[in-house]
Structure formats: C-alpha cells, structure tokens
C-alpha cells in the first residue's frame, strides 16, 4: 500500500472536493432567503451547532499553523491551545443564551444586527460591520494560505502532473475556485452541515495522528521530549522560545478574545432551541480538546525527527503537518486527515465569507440608511466572490513576507477580539455600556492593531499586538461608559439583560 500513498492522498482530497460541490448544490436548493444564507434558517440541532463552533476555530489555523508554531517555538504554542478552551467557556457563559434571545426577539440575521439592537445605534452597526470585514480579510487569508500549502505538498508528489501545477499561486487559484463555489451556492447551510461530519473526522483523526506522531519518533513521546530538551532546553520550558510576557499576552488574547470571534458568536444565534446551549458547550470543548492533540503531536514529533536526523530540516515551519502525513502516517490515515483538513478549512472559510458578505450587503447599507438591497441574496453571493479574491491576494502577499499561518491567524483573532470583546461580550452583559464607548473601542482597536501590523512595529518581550489593542479598547470602553450617563434601554432589551 505504501507505493500507492501519493495516489491515495490525492484521491481522498479529490473525492472530498467533489463532495463539497455536491453539498453546495444540495444547499443551493434549500437556500431561499438571506436568513437561510446567513443564519441557516435558525434551525440547527445540538450536534451540528457544537461541532460547527469548535471546528470553525481549528481548521487551517490549528491543523497547519498549530504544528508549525510548535515546531518553531516549542511550548509557547500551548498557551494558544489551553487558553482557547477557556475562551469557549467564557463565550458560552457571557453570550450564548443572551445573543440567541436577541436573535429571537429582533429577528437578526447578523451580529451587527444584534449590536445595533443592543445599543439602539446605527453607528455601532456600521463600525461592527467594518471591524468584522477587516478581520475576515486577515483570518480568511489564513485559511486560503493553509489550503494552498497543503494542496501544493500533495501535488508535488504526483508525477504525472504538468510542470507548474504545484506552484503556490496555482494551488491558491484552485483552492479559491472550489471554496467560492461551495460558499456561493450553499451559504452557511453548506458549512454547518458539513461541520457535523468533518468535526467527527477531525476528532478521530487527531487521536490516531497523535499516536502515530510519537510512534514515528525513536523513544516515543519521552524520546521526542528528551531530544528537544537536549537540543534546545528553552523550547521545552513552560514559556517556550516566545518568553513569559509573550505567552501571557496570548493567554489574555485567546482566553478573553474567544468571546469576540464573530464566526463563533454568530453560530450561537443559529441553534433551534435556547435550552440546547447546556448540551452544546461540553460537546464543543471536548471536541476541540481532542482535535488539538494533532496540533501538539505533529509539532513536537517533527521537531524531534529533524533533530534526530531522520527527516530533513523544514524550509517552512508550516510544512510540519503536510510532510508528517505524507511521510510517516499510514496512507489511509493520511488520506482521511488531509480530507478532514480540507473539510475544516472549507467550513471555516465559508463562515468567514458568510459574515463578511453580510457586512457588505446587509449591515453597512442598513447602517447608512439604505433600504434592503433588491436581490440581496444574489449580491451576497457576489460579495462572497469579491472577499475571497481580496483575501487570497492578501494571503499571497503575507506569505511572501514569510509569516507563519498561525501568526497570520493570530492577527485575525486579535482584530476580532480587540474590536468585539468590549462591544459584544461586555456590552451585552453591562447595562451602563453605551454606543459612544462601543464605537470608540472599535475604532481605536482597529487603528492600534493594524498600525502595529502594517508598520511592522516590534513590541518588546514578544508581546502580541492584538493583546495591546484589546487592552486599550477595554480601557476606553469602561472609562467612557463610566464617565457618561447610563443609556436608556428599550424595554425588551433591558428584559433580556436582566435574565
């Protein structure tokens, strides 16, 4: 079977992409309105919602970027994994029930709709939509880049393909083409129903790959840890090579920032019954925890294999997962994992395209005083195509700078967290919060976060720029809210916040 490894992997991915096209066509027939396109009709069950929430976090960020980050930084990466679990708990506790009630009461089809209802302000709707759109470009670029890099690694081993077929830009074009078809036809319906299957695949595959990773290393898990310790003791220290303050900034950003991720928060608005939330949370956290084993296992195993001289040094750290699967995993397992990886990326990218399209065709026009755009569903699909193209170009530019997938993803996470944690996570739980504070927090966070990134400002001690932006936005949000008179809330909104 080993001689057919490359063909097995190639066929597995090709079959999966064919399935995506089929799911898109199926979902097209069920997508009759913008409510279906953006909110899946608000009829999702426990398992579909739970698996959609956790799998939208991992995807290319965790399956490609995670192992690459472990390979480069060692234990530092674990501060993302553990803190994200805390973030899930905070998100469910602060938002899951309340935002679902907002959606039920005001018939919202997007997160900015709910924000506008909470603050009774079109300005908050506008700036929330802008923040989501800007964050989508960065975060979606992570997914497209991860998908293209994995596809390139697969195609490089297919001998009968013509020269140039495995170039990164070609793989990006193929990835975007399949992704756009999948998303344009089915909207969020195509994503969430695929999530249920691929979420289960991710959990099982992660467990098997975790075992396979340490079986491939001489001495197993102990041998891998010992090898890395002897080569670079700092990498296996509690803070890894990033350092204490850098890791603590990730702790702050990923633990608290989880409650500001619109692709997660929006899914809280889609479940059928509000009472299902108590069942959704444990399934989500368990699924994420088990799937994260792939992130940890491959990263440490590949670093140990390189140090032991078994594997050649990686040119790019993000090649850790694809090269491990291509070389050390059983061919059938590699095929399943690659297909699962593409599934995770596709569904997550669909979620980002969905909230980005909603911002363009629904939220921003509404905030500016325009009535509903005629043919809103058609223009939502056009906006999906435009966002995908812009994100792909951005991803290609960032790749040329040598940024890791996980670090690009962390920037997207930080953009969302700094803008939306004050406005949504705090604002939906604190009556005194007002629209002026929300708008100031959003605008300031975007200026700080993008300023640090675009100007390539190096913050001392490896402190994450997103954590700085989040700290600034929270300070301003609390300060302005406390300095101004408490706002008058609509009776129904106040009733929800009293619950």
Topology, please?
Elements: H1 5-30, H2 34-39, H3 46-73, H4 78-106, H5 111-119, H6 122-155, H7 168-215, H8 220-231, H9 244-256, H10 262-265, H11 277-307, H12 320-327, H13 331-367, H14 376-400, H15 405-426, H16 435-454, H17 465-483, H18 491-497
Helix pairs in contact: 1-7, 1-13, 3-6, 3-7, 3-11, 3-13, 3-15, 4-5, 4-9, 4-11, 4-18, 5-6, 6-7, 6-13, 6-14, 6-15, 6-16, 7-11, 7-13, 7-14, 8-11, 9-17, 13-14, 15-16, 15-17, 16-17
Structural features, described:
By secondary structure, the chain is mostly helical. The chain is 76% helix and 0% strand. The longest helix is centred in the middle third of the chain and has 48 residues, at 168-215. The radius of gyration is 22 Å and the shape is globular. It starts with a helix and ends with a helix. The mean pLDDT is 82.
CATH architecture identity? Up-down Bundle
**C-alpha Rg, in Å?**
22 Å
Count every helix, treating DSSP H or I runs of 4 or more residues as helices.
18
Percent strand: under 5%
What would a concise description of this structure say?
With about 500 residues, this protein is mainly α. It contains 18 helices and no strands. Helix 5 packs antiparallel against helix 6, helix 6 (about 120-155) packs across helix 7 and helix 16 (about 435-455) runs antiparallel to helix 17.
Descriptors:
76% helix; mainly alpha; single chain
């Amino acid at each position: 079977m080993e001689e057919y490894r490359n063909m097995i992997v190639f066929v597995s991915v090709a079959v999966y992409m064919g399935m995506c096209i089929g799911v898109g066509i199926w979902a097209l027939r069920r997508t009759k309105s913008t409510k279906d396109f953006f909110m899946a009709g608000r009829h999702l069950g426990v398992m579909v919602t739970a698996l959609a929430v956790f799998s939208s976090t991992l995807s290319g960020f965790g399956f490609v970027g995670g192992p690459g980050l472990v390979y480069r930084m060692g234990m530092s990466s674990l501060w993302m994994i553990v803190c994200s679990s805390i973030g899930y708990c905070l998100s469910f506790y602060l938002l899951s029930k309340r935002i679902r009630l907002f959606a039920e009461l005001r018939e919202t089809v997007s997160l900015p709709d709910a924000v506008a209802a909470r603050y009774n302000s079109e300005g908050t709707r506008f700036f929330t939509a802008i923040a989501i759109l800007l964050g989508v470009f960065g975060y979606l670029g992570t997914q497209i880049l991860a998908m293209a890099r994995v596809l390139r690694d697969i195609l490089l081993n297919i001998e009968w393909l013509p020269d140039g077929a495995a170039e990164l830009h070609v793989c990006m074009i193929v990835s975007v083409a399949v992704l756009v078809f999948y998303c344009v036809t089915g909207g969020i319906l195509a994503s969430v129903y695929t999530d249920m299957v691929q979420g289960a695949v991710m959990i099982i595959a992660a467990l098997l790959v975790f075992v396979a990773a340490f079986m491939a290393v001489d001495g197993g898990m102990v041998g891998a840890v010992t090898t890395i310790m002897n080569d670079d003791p700092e990498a296996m220290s509690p803070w890894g090579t990033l350092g204490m303050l850098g890791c603590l900034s990730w702790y702050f950003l990923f633990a608290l920032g989880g409650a500001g991720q619109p692709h997660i928060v929006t899914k809280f608005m889609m479940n059928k019954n509000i009472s299902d939330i108590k069942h959704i949370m444990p399934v989500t956290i368990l699924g994420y925890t088990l799937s994260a084993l792939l992130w940890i296992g491959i990263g440490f195993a590949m670093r140990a294999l390189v140090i032991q001289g078994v594997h050649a040094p990686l040119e790019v750290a993000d090649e850790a997962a694809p090269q491990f699967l291509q070389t050390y995993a059983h061919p059938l397992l590699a095929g399943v994992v690659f297909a699962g990886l593409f599934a995770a990326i596709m569904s997550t990218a669909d979620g980002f395209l969905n909230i980005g399209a909603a911002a363009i065709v629904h939220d921003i026009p509404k905030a500016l005083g325009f009535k509903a755009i005629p043919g809103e569903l058609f223009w939502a699909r056009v906006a999906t195509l435009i966002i995908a193209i812009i994100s792909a170009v951005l991803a290609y530019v960032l790749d040329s700078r040598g940024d890791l997938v996980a670090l690009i993803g962390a920037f997207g996470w930080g953009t969302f967290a700094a803008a939306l944690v004050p406005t949504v996570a705090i604002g939906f739980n604190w009556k005194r919060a007002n629209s002026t504070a929300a708008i100031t927090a959003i605008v300031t966070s975007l200026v700080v976060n993008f300023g640090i990134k675009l100007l390539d400002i190096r913050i001392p001690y490896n402190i994450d720029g997103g954590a700085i932006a989040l700290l600034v936005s929270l300070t301003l949000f609390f300060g302005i809210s406390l300095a101004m008179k408490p706002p008058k809330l609509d009776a129904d909104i106040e009733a929800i916040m009293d619950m």
